[in-house]
């Protein structure tokens, strides 16, 4: 009886020891689990803001709106950059959960999260493929509509080309994420084979004559337009040459009748006498007794006195202008009275 009680006491003590050991091993793992979750959440918030700003800075939303996908997102509170930023945010959170549950060792939750995390980059690439395909489709539609806008079927061809490019992008995106590959791949192959067959049969058969006639018309039109372009270029060159010739003719090159520069004639005490009848500018003689500025007459054959001497700025022209006649344009024969030169005194 005493031996049985002793064995029971030993079993209880071992159980308590194992329990405390388990608790002591659980606490560090729990602390590490919580710490990984907190740090991962902070990093995820940081990645959310960074990705959103980068996508807005590079114009990702404008590309989405140009491609037509923006109309599908008008009724939602998220735009394209927000969706990709949220996708990156949840990817970081899932990676954090995978690391946090990995603290407890191998478990089914970690395996499930690992599969989802491995799938998220494919989803990111698929979204980018759809956006790029939509942008290319929009550009192709605008180009075809502008080139064939005058035709009745121009708009239809533009819409068909845009839809075809978008369909190719969607199929490529589905193949990227691994959804319905058994359906999308045969459909894509069938569509491409159909288009190739139509081109081969049409060009090799019934479209030979119509295309030959169209090519002849296009070549004739191109030849006529090239001749018009050459004529316009020759006319432009001739106009430039005429303009240069006219500018050269209008340039002052010392032609007869041009106005000469102002000539300053100093008349001091030592200058020769100005006698009566000496011709001045324009052939007009200055006779004796003709008053100068200041009211002092000049006698014929007598030199001008030093007090009455003034430096005169005479404007000469190539031809004399008689009194009362109209002066040519640009000729000024005004006499200016300047202060006396007293350097010789």
TrEMBL record:
Signal peptide positions (record): none
InterPro entries named in the record: MSC_TM_helix
Domain of life of the organism encoding this protein: Bacteria
Keywords: Membrane, Transmembrane, Transmembrane helix
Biased composition (Polar residues): 308-320
Biased composition (Basic and acidic residues): 329-345
Region (Disordered): 240-345
Transmembrane intervals: 26-48, 83-104, 124-144, 156-175, 187-208
Protein name as catalogued: Uncharacterized protein
Species of the source: Polymorphospora rubra
Lineage: Bacteria, Bacillati, Actinomycetota, Actinomycetes, Micromonosporales
């Amino acid at each position: 009886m005493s031996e049985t009680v002793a064995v029971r006491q030993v079993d209880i003590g071992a159980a308590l020891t194992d329990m405390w050991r388990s608790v002591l091993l659980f606490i560090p793992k729990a602390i590490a689990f919580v710490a990984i979750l907190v740090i991962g959440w902070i990093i995820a918030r940081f990645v959310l803001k960074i990705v959103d700003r980068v996508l807005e800075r590079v114009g990702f939303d404008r590309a989405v709106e140009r491609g037509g996908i923006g109309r599908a997102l008008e009724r939602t509170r998220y735009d394209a950059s927000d969706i990709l930023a949220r996708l990156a945010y949840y990817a970081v959170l899932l990676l954090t959960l995978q690391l946090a549950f990995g603290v407890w060792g191998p478990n089914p939750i970690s395996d499930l999260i690992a599969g989802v995390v491995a799938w998220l980059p494919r989803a990111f690439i698929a979204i980018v493929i759809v956006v790029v395909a939509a942008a290319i489709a929009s550009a192709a539609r605008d180009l075809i509509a502008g080139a064939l806008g005058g035709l009745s079927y121009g708009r239809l061809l533009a819409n068909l080309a845009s839809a075809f490019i978008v369909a190719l992008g969607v199929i490529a995106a589905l193949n990227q994420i691994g959804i319905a590959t058994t359906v999308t791949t045969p459909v894509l192959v069938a569509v491409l084979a159909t288009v190739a067959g139509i081109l081969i049969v049409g060009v090799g058969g019934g479209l030979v004559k119509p295309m030959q006639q169209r090519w002849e018309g296009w070549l004739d039109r191109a030849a006529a337009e090239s001749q018009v372009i050459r004529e316009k270029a020759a006319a432009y060159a001739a106009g430039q040459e005429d303009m240069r010739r006219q500018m050269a003719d209008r340039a002052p090159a010392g032609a007869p009748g041009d106005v000469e520069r102002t000539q300053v004639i100093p008349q001091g005490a030592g200058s020769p006498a100005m006698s009566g009848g000496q011709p001045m500018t324009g052939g007009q003689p200055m006779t004796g007794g003709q008053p100068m500025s200041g009211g002092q007459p000049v006698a014929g054959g007598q030199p001008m006195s030093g007090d009455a001497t003034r430096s005169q700025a005479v404007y000469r022209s190539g031809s004399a202008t008689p009194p009362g006649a109209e002066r040519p344009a640009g000729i000024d024969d005004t006499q200016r009275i300047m202060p006396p030169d007293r350097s010789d005194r």
